Amino acid sequence: MGDADILFLKNHGVMVACASIAEAWDDLYYLERAAEAQWRAMSSNRPLKPVPHEVAQRTYEQMRAGDVESARAHLASGMRQLHAQGIRFEA
Question: 28-78 pLDDT, tens per residue?
Fold first, then answer.
């Protein structure tokens, strides 16, 4: 996988390699959000405007700053939402 956290497997989904469950869940969460945004944009049947490389790079850097702490807080938030719905399990 090299430096990648996520590997796309042809016809088999994705594989995530992270140091913790929280980081893996966080990566998959944002991957799904990005895929949904791309799917919606492509379904418009209008020409898409690519994001400039500099903007994509800066976004990546901002998302990775404090990644471990942010991932833990994000997973904890999701767990609280599930617990509020009566769904209980431990991560």
Answer: 999 999 999 999 999 999 999 999 999 999 998 888 887 899 999 999 999
Domain ranges in the chain? 6-84
Spatial separation of the C-alpha atoms in residues 33 and 59, rounded to whole Å:
15
How much is the CA Rg of the chain, to the nearest whole Å? 16
Q: Quickly list DSSP for 24-75.
A: HHHHHHHHHHHHHHHHHHHTTTSPPPPPPHHHHHHHHHHHHTTHHHHHHHHH
Please choose, from the candidates 37, 36, 32, the residue with its C-alpha nearest in 3D space to the C-alpha of residue 78: 32
pTM: 0.80
